[in-house]
Write a sequence for this structure.
């Protein structure tokens, strides 16, 4: 059986957008801290974008993400939802040399039974809104940093990928997700 994953190791959340999250975006712009609250409830969070990650590349190419600079690093606004995935929803992650459709190395992630239900609900509720030309994105967060922000193109249930910029990064992210990574010494 896989080792239990450390709390806070992984999260898949929805990236904030003006159409769906206008109120939270407005609150976030007035929030100097990391977490964004509405009537006392945490609704969103500013998360740092991992250096040299697919997310850092994706943010440079698009202007529809809600970002800010903090300590000269980009931060991305992500919203909290009832069906966010966490490490407890990951059965297994592996990098076996596979690539995404654009040729980037990627980690293949298999969800648990509960994770599959959450993944289905998360992606169904955030599928493209063709009538309003709105594409939504998921934030792949590992150890508090956003590594990728893939478009949600269809409903996904049991497997998904996390695109990376190198085979070394893919191997490292898989080890984090599997709980076999040793944290760097402090």
């Amino acid at each position: 059986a896989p080792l239990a994953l450390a709390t806070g190791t992984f999260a898949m959340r929805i990236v904030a957008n003006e159409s769906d999250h206008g109120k939270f975006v407005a609150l976030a712009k007035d929030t100097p801290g990391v977490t964004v609250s509405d009537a006392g409830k945490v609704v969103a969070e500013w998360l740092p974008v991992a250096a040299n990650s697919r997310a850092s590349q994706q943010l440079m190419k698009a202007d529809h993400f809600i970002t800010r600079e903090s300590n000269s690093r980009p931060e991305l606004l992500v919203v909290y939802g009832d069906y966010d995935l966490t490490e407890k929803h990951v059965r297994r992650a592996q990098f076996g040399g596979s690539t995404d459709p654009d040729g980037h190395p990627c980690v293949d992630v298999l969800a648990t039974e509960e994770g599959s239900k959450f993944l289905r609900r998360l992606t169904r509720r955030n599928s493209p809104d063709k009538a309003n030309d709105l594409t939504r994105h998921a934030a792949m967060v590992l150890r508090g940093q956003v590594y990728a922000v893939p478009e949600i193109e269809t409903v996904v249930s049991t497997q998904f990928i996390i695109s990376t910029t190198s085979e070394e990064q893919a191997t490292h992210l898989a080890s984090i997700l599997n709980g076999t990574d040793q944290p760097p010494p402090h």
